[in-house]
Amino acid sequence: xxxxxxxxxxxLFSRRITLISLLGLLALIAxxxxxxxxxxxxxxxxxxxxxxRDYDEYLQEWEANHEKWEAxxxxxxxxxxxxxxxxxxxxxxxxxxxSFRDAVTPAISFAVYLGGMVxxxxxxxxxxxxxxxxxxxxWLTFIPNRTTVLASKLIVVSVFSCAVGAAVGLLTVxxxxxxxxxxxxxxxxxxxxxxxxxxxxxxxxxxxIAGFAVGLLTxxxxxxxxxxxxxxxxxxxLSVLAFVSRWAQYVAPFSPGVNxxxxxxxxxxxxxxxxxxxxxQDAGYAERxxxxxxxxxxxxxxxxxxxxxxxxxxxxRDVT
Length: 320
Known about the structure:
The protein has 320 residues and is mainly alpha-helical. The protein contains twelve helices and two strands. 76% of the residues lie in helices and 4% in strands. It has a two-stranded antiparallel sheet with strand order 1-2.
């Protein structure tokens, strides 16, 4: 097994797509830091003067009319929570920099999902290329035990995916912290964003392992990319249908995207209609919670099933 692990590791790092994928991922994460920098940077004196005037004008209007706005909204069918008109905050008007936590949270989410999709394709190609070219048959002549071969590949994929996930989170948090410190802003919520980045390692690993399993089942990198795009499209369609269809709301706990979000955010929420009819503008909604444990359990079952099916197919597949 040790020799197989070494060989698989060398093959993974010798592949051109692995290097290109990592460089592209690094470039896109670095590019997103421009957005973080613009949020944590304090505005210029001229911008502050203009924004202050706009803020003061709106604040006067809010103080004079916010109660009427809320009452009109409730009369039109909205709930008290939906119609609430909170006091305008300086940070919302750009007069104060966005907090470190608010600026970095979307950056981590972007980096984790981008890293996950990149790894999905790279790991699918890792095994798909072997199946397409027939090199897998040559490899089995050196190690005729298919269980050992599959286990060595899966271990390398899992460790590599976790390493990439950790690097993605560390790079995002560290670079964002440096930018925030340079602009003289406090690192508010550093513990929370660090925990989110740590949970992101699991999300990236899920993508990597799933990509490997799908690549093994399809035997093609192109088909695996099609599965990924199909999954993204289905998740988006389901989220849109949730606004107009009750069944889509109740399917939400079984959605791959919602469960990934539960892992990354340490829990997530979704809404279901409480009225007797289909969702409408006047319908009531209740909030449901999907916990971190539920998200982890969901993906443990999904990955377990994918690996088991892949192993069963690999044992019987003709790889010549």
